[in-house]
Amino acid sequence: MSTPVGAPGSTMSRREFLAATGSAGALGLAGCTAPTEERVQASQTANQATTDGSVPSTSPPEVVDVDEQGGSVTLKSTPARHAVHPLETMGGPVELPRVWAFQADDGDPSVPGPILRTTEGEDMEVTLDNTDGMRPHTLHFHGVRKAWEDDGVPTTTGIRVGPGEKHTYTIPANVPGTHLYHCHYQTHRHVEMGMFGIFRVDPKGYERADREYFMTVKDWDSRLSRMAAGQDATYDPQNRKPDVFTVNGKSAPRTLHPEDGSPIIVSEGDQVRVHFVNGGYMSHPLHIHNHRFQRVEKDGGTIPEAARHEMDVTNVAPAERHTIEFTADADPGIYLMHCHKVNHVMNGGFYPGGMLGGVVYESAMDTDIFAQLMEYAGYEG
Fold first, then answer.
1. Between β-strands 244-247 and 211-220, what pairing exists: parallel, antiparallel or unpaired?
2. pLDDT by 10-residue block (mean), the chain, 381 residues
3. Type and span of the H or E element at 296
4. What's the rounded Cα separation, in Å, for the pair 238 and 332?
5. Coil vs helix vs strand at 18
6. Are the C-beta atoms of 253 and 272 separated by less than 8 Å?
7. 132: closest CA among 22, 56, 39, 218?
8. Taking the mean position of all CA atoms in its chain, how far away is CA 76?
9. Whole-angstrom Cα distance, residue 310 to residue 13?
10. 8 Å CB contact between 201 and 65
11. Would you state the pLDDT for residue 14?
12. Which of 18, 84, 197, 310 could be a cystine partner for 292, CB 3.0 to 4.6 Å?
């Protein structure tokens, strides 16, 4: 099975993407079908284990249908390198040289972690496998109601999963909606190192939109990552200085890469549903250009229709989850989705970059401007 193109939740295949772009047409104009040696080397660095064999590199987060696995999933964390944007375009390269990435079962490690998806009324058995770990961890799930010992907080439950240990949490899917999970041991450091992900509970009888995507935003103080990698840096959680801003773990223009990034791909007339999650420590007012949307869920609660209204910015606080819906009814083109704290849309001193993605109409993919964006993002066709 091929990896879908677009943000997590996408059903678009690579073949369909190539057909929409005109394959060797517009992409050929940008030189994307004839990658340079530097781009090949950057791609290998981003997607393979490091040459010294020390740690692997992360992959994009996958959606795990836990129901299809009989209601059980195993999570473990592994040290990894995380290429936020591996090329020299638009202020790059940007890297977190050491993260602690979650991986589900035999999947690839990712930051954010795998998206765990289940259905209302099911019980989910989540095993935290720390047998190869070097430090204690736990798992805490937001939103749902669970037994005391499954809350994942070592201070109040007395349960932590030490190196060499495993522990299984029973997580009832009793609150439908989009939620967050993360390590709750030394939270101020372990979340900053990448130990967080999305937990989605579909209501019974759930009807998916034409296009449905998951988007996790995060602000990072890269000093902790650099310190963990042995570089000359000192991290102070009380004097945190965010300098990297991501959408699903990537900074623009890598966010627009169809396989490594998270473009919101739509066709004219689509009903689009986006689940925003803030895995960071700062609020992020997320804005979509040229579209009006409604916020239909917040933190697992359905917003009554009488309380909904048209908007184009939703301010997502730390750990909040906002689900928005809109119709793809704009003039077909390419439109930004970004944090409106404009300094968060930067890679170092370079603008634009950072916490910026895009809504991309399929009919605009066979254009020179889209080919140029793919060149910036490092897509090689």
1. antiparallel
2. 74 81 50 35 41 79 97 97 96 98 97 98 97 97 97 98 98 98 98 98 97 98 98 95 98 96 97 98 98 98 97 98 98 98 97 98 96 94 69
3. strand 294-298
4. 45
5. helix
6. no
7. 56
8. 18
9. 32
10. no
11. 80
12. 310
What is the C-alpha to C-alpha distance for residues 90 and 44, in angstroms, rounded to an integer?
20
What are the pLDDT digits (tens) for 75-114?
Answer: 999 999 999 999 999 999 999 999 999 999 999 999 999 9
Q: Give CA–CA dist 165/209, Å, rounded.
A: 41
In the chain the first and final C-alpha atoms are separated, in Å, by 19
Q: Is 158 exposed, middle or buried (0-12, 13-18, 19+ CB in 10 A)?
A: exposed
Which two structure tokens, joined as six digits, stand for 177? Answer: 């909606």
Q: What is the pLDDT of residue 24?
A: 40
Q: In what order do the strands lie in the sheet with 294-298?
A: 244-247, 211-220, 271-278, 321-327, 294-298, 301-302
Q: What is the spatial distance between Cα 264 and Cα 274, in angstroms, rounded to a whole number?
A: 9
Look at residue 198 and give its three-state secondary structure.
Answer: strand
For residue 330, give the 3-state DSSP assignment.
Answer: coil
CB of 225 within 8 A of CB of 98?
yes
Instruction: Tell me if the pTM is above 0.70.
Output: yes
Q: For residues 123 and 235, what is the distance between their CA atoms, to the nearest angstrom?
A: 39
- Classified as helix, coil or strand, 294 is strand
Pairing outcome for strands 284-288 and 334-339: antiparallel
DSSP category for residue 29: H
**In the block, which residue shows the tokens 């030189």?**
31
The 10 Å Cβ neighbour count of residue 346 is: 21
Q: Return d(Cα 81, Cα 118) in angstroms, integer.
A: 29
d(CA 216, CA 178): 11
Three-state SS string over 207-247 comes to CCCCEEEEEEEEEECHHHHHHHCCCCCCCCHHHCCCCEEEE
CA-to-CA separations, 84 to 42, 43, 114, 117, 198, in angstroms, rounded = 12, 12, 17, 25, 19
CA-to-CA distance for 75 and 183, rounded, in angstroms? 11
Three-state SS for 45? helix
